[in-house]
Amino acid sequence: PTSRDPSPVQQDVRVLGAREHNLQNIDLTVPRDALVVFTGVSGSGKSSLAFGTLFAESQRRYLESVAPYARRLIDQAGVPDVDSITGMPPAVALQQQRGGRSARSSVGSITTLSSLVRMLYSRAGHYPDDQPMLYAEDFSANTVQGACPECHGIGRVYEVTEDKMVPDPSRTIRERAIASWPTAWHGHQLRDVLVALGYDVDVPWKDLPKEDRDWILYTEETPYVPVHSRLTLPEARAAIEAGVEPSYSGTFVGARRYVLDTFANTKSGSMKRRVAQFLTVAPCTVCHGKRLKPEALSVTFEGLDVAELSELPLAELSTLIEEAVERATGDLDGTETAGQALDETARRDAVQQRVDAGGSAHAAAPDVRKTPNHSVEKLAATARLGAELVNRLRPIIDLGLGYLSLGRTTPTLSGGELQRLRLATQLTSELFGVVYVLDEPSAGLHPQDVTALLGILDGLKRRGNSLFVVEHSVDVMRHADWLVDIGPGAGERGGRVIYSGPTDGLAEVEESVTRGYVFGGSGLPRRTPREPQGWLQLEHVTRNNLRDVSISLPLGVFTAVTGVSGSGKSSLVSQALPALLGERRARTVQAEDAAAPEEDELLLTDEPEELEGTVRGDLSGVRRVVSIDQKPIGRTPRSNVATYTGLFDHVRRRFAETPEARARGYKPGRFSFNVTGGRCPTCKGEGSVMVELLFLPSVYTECPDCHGTRYQSSTLEIIWRGRDIAEILAMSVEEAHDFFHGEFDIMRSLAALIDVGLGYLRLGQPATELSGGEAQRVKLATELQRSQRGDTLYLLDEPTSGLHCADSDRLVAHLQTLVDAGNTVVAVELDMRVVAAADHVVDLGPGAGDDGGTVVTSGTPAQVASSGVGASAPYLEAALQ
Ligand code: ADP
Ligand code: ADP
Ligand code: ZN
Ligand code: ZN
C-alpha cells in the first residue's frame, strides 16, 4: 500500500489499517468539503484518529515536502501507525492549548491585529504639532524603539526597599539583619567583605549611620578586597595591623543589586522565589504602566492613545473604528483627489512597510506621516487600514469574543477562548482546500454562542475547506454532515468505528453510547430540587465586569452558574468567591497551591486586580472552601497523575517492601524518577532527551539508555505482582484499577479518577500533556479521594468541559453524592442538561463583558426556564422537557 495520494480529484479521505494508540486496525472513509464530527466517550480514540493519525500523516507529508533532508525530524515527530491514507488535503490543526502560556503574548499579537493598529497610529494618528512622525514599531512596547525608556516596556518597576530587605533592624548584620542576602557561604563572604571595608557588622542595624546603611543596601559599586575570614571589625583591624595574610579576596555587591540581578538572571526557581519576596512592584512613573515611550503615547486616534485603544473591548473598538472610517470616507468624498489618494496611500503603505521593516527609504514617495493631521493621505489611511481592522474583528466578535481587549494577555484566557481566537484568525486568512482539525471548538461556549460557532464553521466549509472536529456538543453533532462515532468504551474497550455516516443514521446503532444523547433516551434522571440548608449573601461584589453585584447562594445544594461566554461566571466562581470566602474562612484551599509556584508566576507581570464585596450568612456548617480551577497542575513533565494524587507514594512503598528490594536495601525513594538513586542518570528520569537540530526546532526523543522507562535497569529488576515500576506508570487508570485489586489505599485514588471520567489517562502521563479540563478533574479526584466530612464548599469552573455526555453524567452523579453528604457545590456550567440537574441556577448576563456582569435571573431550574428572561431560559426549558 502507498501513502501517496494518487488522484487529486478524489472526493473522500480514506484510511486503511489505523492502529495508533488504542485504534483497532480500523478502516474509514469520510467525505471532503464537509463538516465531519468525531464523537465517543473520553479515551475512546477520537483524538488518536483525528490528530494522531489524520493530522499527523498530513503533517508528515508536509515536512517531507518542505524538508526532505529532515528525515530525522519526521522520525522523531512519529509516523502514525496506519497502512494508508488517501485523499487527505493539507491540514491545519487547532488543538486546545495545554500547559503554560507566555505572558508576553496577547489577544493583539496572536490575532496579529496589533500590528495593524500600530500601522494605523503611525499613518493616521493625530500627532502633536511639534512631534516628529513615528514608525509602526515605535508603537510596540516589545521593540527597543517603542519601549518606555524608564521601565524598558514592562510598565512596572521593581523596587527593593529597606523595610523588605531588613525586616528586623534590631539585629546586627552578623545576626542576618539583611534578610535578602544569600544564605550560606556567599552571605558570610559579603559580611567579611563589609568588615574588610571597615563596616561594623556587630552593632544593631538601626544604630548604623544612615549613610552606611544606604551604601550597604543601594551601592552600585562592587569593590574587590582582601578579606580576613570571620573576624569582627576590631579583630580585622588588628589582623591588618599585624600583617596577617588575608584568607581570600571577595567582591561586595549592594543588597538591592543582589536581589535585582538574582531575580533577573538566576536559572534556579527556588532562588528566584527566594529573592522575589523582597521585591515590590510599582507602576512605572513615566508611562504609568502603558509600557510605551512618551512620544508614542502622545499620538492619538479618535482621542485615545494606543495603550488606551488596546484596553477597549473588541466590540467597542470595532464600533469606534467603523465610525472613524465612515467619517474619513465621507470627508474624502468631499475632496477631488479621493480615489487617487486611496490608491496612493495603498502604494505608500507598501513602501513604508518595507522601510519600517528595515529596508531602504530611497523609493519612498512623500511620507504620509509628514502630512498635516487631517490630510487627504491620513483620511485615506484611516479608511483603508480601518476597514481592514473592522473586517478582521468581525469574526472574533461573531464568535462571542467581543468582550476581550487587544491587550488581554494569553495566560488570562481560557483554552476555549484561545482556540476560538485562533479560529477567527484563520477565517480571515483566506485559505482554501485545507482540512481544519479542531479539538472541541464549542468548549466554554453557551448554547447561544454555539449557533455563532456553527456559522463560522459553515463559512470555512463554503470557502472550500474540510472540517474534522472532535466534539462533545450535541448541537454540533446534529449540525454535522458526517458523524464518526468511536468506541464503544475507552482504551482497550474502544478504538473501533461504531458508526460512520450522516448523523441521522446513528439512530439505528444500538451499540453507540452517543446515540442516546443525540436522539434522546439517555441522560440524567429527573430530580426534585433539594431545599437549601441556609443562604450566603454576597454583596457589592466587584471584580472584572461584575460591578457591585449582590447574589444569594444556597448552602447544602448544587448550584449551577451559567450565562453566555464572558458574562462573568469565572470572575464570580473562580476569582471573587474563593477570595471573599477566604477572608471569612481562613482555611480556603487553593488546590493548585499544593504544587510549588512556577517561575512564570514570579514574573509578577499582573498587578493584583481589584476585588470588593462582603459575605454574610451562616457559614458555621462550612469548614473548608475548596476552589478547583483549570490551571495546569504543574508545568514540568515530572509531575504526573500518579504523583499528583499521591497514589505513587503507596505504589513505591509496595515495591520497597518486596523481598528482593529489601535484600538490596532499596527504599521507596529508589523507585522515584524525581530524585537520584533509581532513576536513569542519562535523562535524569525524564525518559526523553532533547536533540538540537540545525535550523529546525529542537525535538525530544526517547532516552537511548532507559528507552523511555525513566529508570535504571537495576531498579526495573524489582517486580511486584509481575510488573516493574515503569510498567505500572504505563498503565491506564482503568488497567491499574484491575491490577491493584485489594490494595485499598491505591484503589481509592484510582476509583476517584475513574469517577471524574479520567479512566483513560496513563498513570505516568505528564502534567504538561493534560488539558485544562483534565487538570481540573485530576484536582477534583485528588480532593474526592479524601474522606468526606460533609462540611466543604466546592467551587468548580466548568467541570464537564471536554467530557462526553456519558462521562459528564457520571461526574455529575458524583457531585450529587457529595451534596447528599452535606457538602455544597457551586459550579460554572454550560451544558443545559447538567444545569437542569442542579438545585439552584444563577444566570449571569445579559451579555458579555460590560454588557454582562449582573444576575439576570435565579431560582430552581424550572423557575429560571420559565422566567422568560436571559440567554439560558429557552435552552434550559428544552433540557427540562
Ligand atoms: P479521546 O480523544 O477519544 O478522548 P484518545 O485518542 O486521546 O481518546 O485516547 C485513546 C486511547 O489511547 C486511550 O486509552 C489513551 O490512554 C491512549 N493514548 C492517548 N495518547 C497516548 C499516548 N501518547 N501514548 C499512549 N497511549 C495514548
Ligand atoms: P465567563 O466565565 O462568563 O466566560 P469571565 O468571568 O471570564 O466570563 O469574564 C467576564 C469579563 O471579565 C470579561 O469582560 C472578561 O474579559 C473580563 N476578565 C476576566 N478575567 C479577566 C482578567 N484576568 N483580567 C481582565 N479582565 C478579565
Ligand atoms: Zn514605563
Ligand atoms: Zn533515560
Automatic annotation (TrEMBL):
MF-aspect GO terms: ATP binding; ATP hydrolysis activity; DNA binding; nuclease activity; zinc ion binding
Major localization listed first in the record, in broad terms: cytoplasm
Alphabetical keyword list: ATP-binding, Cytoplasm, DNA damage, DNA excision, DNA repair, DNA-binding, Excision nuclease, Metal-binding, Nucleotide-binding, Repeat, Zinc, Zinc-finger
Domain ABC transporter: 536-871
Keyword Mitochondrion: no
Subcellular localization: Cytoplasm
Hydrolase keyword on record: no
GO annotations of cellular component type: cytoplasm
Classification via InterPro entries: AAA+_ATPase (IPR003593), ABC_transporter-like_ATP-bd (IPR003439), ABC_transporter-like_CS (IPR017871), P-loop_NTPase (IPR027417), UvrA_DNA-bd (IPR041552)
A Pfam family reported for this protein in Swiss-Prot or TrEMBL: UvrA_DNA-bind
Signal peptide: none
Biological processes, Gene Ontology terms: DNA repair
Family in the record: Belongs to the ABC transporter superfamily. UvrA family.
Record's protein name: UvrABC system protein A
Taxonomic source organism: Micrococcus terreus
